[in-house]
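Notebook entry, structure prediction.
Reason for the run: the old model in the group folder had no record of what sequence produced it. Starting over properly, with the input documented here first.
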Amino acid sequence: MTTTEPDGPMTAEAPPRVAQPGPRTLAWQRRRRSAARFWKQYRTHRAGVLGLAALGLFALIAVTAPLTVGSDVQSVTSAPGEPLESPSAEFPLGTDQFGRNLLGLVVWGARVSLLVGLLAAVLSVAIGALIGITAGHFRGWYATVLMRITDWFLVMPTLVLAIALATVMTRSLGTIILAIGVTTWPTTARLVRAQTLAVESRPYIERAKALGGGHRHIMSRHVLPNVMPLVLAQTTLIISSAILAEATLAFLGLGDPTVVSWGGLLQDAREAGAVSAGKWWYLVPPGVAIAVVALAFTLCGRAVESVLNPKLGVAR
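New structure, fully documented this time:
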C-alpha cells in the first residue's frame, strides 16, 4: 500500500483582513462622541434643561399652529367673538379689539416671533463671525478698519439703528430681520476676533503655513472649527435679544401689519386702549410669552457656555 506525500509544507490559513474605516467615517464617529459628551455635560445643568424643555414646547406649539388653531384665526371679518371680551370657557384668554380669539393669536404669533428671532440671530452671528475671523487672521490696516467700524456700531444704540433701518425700508418681516441682524453683530465680532488671535498663535497654525496652507485653508480648516463653540453659544444668547428687538419694533408700529406676532399684539393692545381700560388679558399673554422664550434662550445659552468653557463656572 503506497501513500502520497503532500506537495509542500502545510501553512495556516491567513485571517481575513478587516476593512479600516475611512477618514469620513472616523470624522463622523468623533462628532458623535463629541455630541454625546456635550449632551452628558449639558444634562447636569438643571436650568439649561428647563430652558430647553420650554423651547421645545414653544417650538411644538409654533409648528402645530396650522393644525391646532388654523390660519383663519387672523381673519378680522370672521371673528367669532365680541371685541375685548374677558376670558371665558369659549375664549380662555379673551378676545382682541376685533373679537378674535387671543389664545389662537398668541399660538399663531409664536411662529412669526420665533422665526424672526432665529433668522435675525443667524444673520447677526454670521456677520460677526465673518468679520471677527478675517480681522483676526489678516490683521494690519484691514483689521484696523474693521475694528473701528465695529467700535462705531458698539457705541451707537442698537435699537435706534434698527428703528432707523426699519423706518426707511418697506414694512415686512425681511426688513425686521435685516434691521436686527445688521445692528447686533459687533459683540460677536469682538469675541470671535479675540478667539481667532488665540488660535492663530498656536504652533500647528505655523506648521500649516509652512506646509503651504493658504488663507482660505487656515481660516476654514483650523480657525473656524475652533471658534464654532463660541459662535454656537453666542447664537443662543443673541436669539433672546433678537426676539425682544422684534417685539419692540412691532410694538412701535414698525413691523409687518399683515402678520400676527407677539409684539404686534402688544401694539394692537396699546392702540385699543387696553392699558387704560384695564383689559389685562390683552397685554399679559403675549408679554409673558416673550419673557418666557427670552428667558429660556438665555438659560440655554448660559448652559452651553458653561459646557464649552467650564472656567466660566456658571451655576447649575
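Summary: The first helix runs from residue 23 to 42.
The old model has been moved to the deprecated folder.
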